[in-house]
Amino acid sequence: MNSYLLVPLRLLRLLLDLATDLLFGAWLSGSHRPPPPVSDVLLLDSATALADKIRTGRVSSRQAVEVYVKRAKEVNPVLNCYVDTRRDFFASLKALV
Q1: How many angstroms separate the CA atoms of 43 and 26, rounded?
Q2: Are 72 and 83 in contact (CB under 8 A)?
Q3: What is the pLDDT of the chain when averaged over all its residues?
Q4: CB burial class (10 A; 0-12, 13-18, 19+) of residue 83?
């Protein structure tokens, strides 16, 4: 592309980016809510640390799943996403064991 066309196109892109940032920023500014604070320290562990805790028996896999399902329910109103927590999961798990 010719270099004399790049300057106006970059300027146009900059103006469009600025306009969309202002438009969506104003539109979404009233609806922003921070997620609730973390209620369990298990949520702060990395996947490797959590796997190590499960492997060594310091945390059960059931306990880990319950903590994460609880957190998904806590942040769902803020994120406004579909969460299926499978309420019957633990009941069906007990039936298998």
Answers
A1: 33
A2: yes
A3: 83
A4: exposed
Strand ranges (E), 7-95: none
Q: pTM of whole model > 0.70?
A: no
Q: Distance between CA atoms of 61 and 55, rounded to whole angstroms?
A: 9
Joined tokens for residue 33 = 């809510």
CA angle 55, 58, 61 (to 5 degrees): 60
Q: Single out the residue of 25, 76, 66, 21 nearest to residue 43, CA to CA.
A: 66
- How far apart CA 3 and CA 60 sit, in angstroms, is 63
28-64 per-position pLDDT tens digit: 666 667 888 999 999 999 999 999 999 999 999 889 9
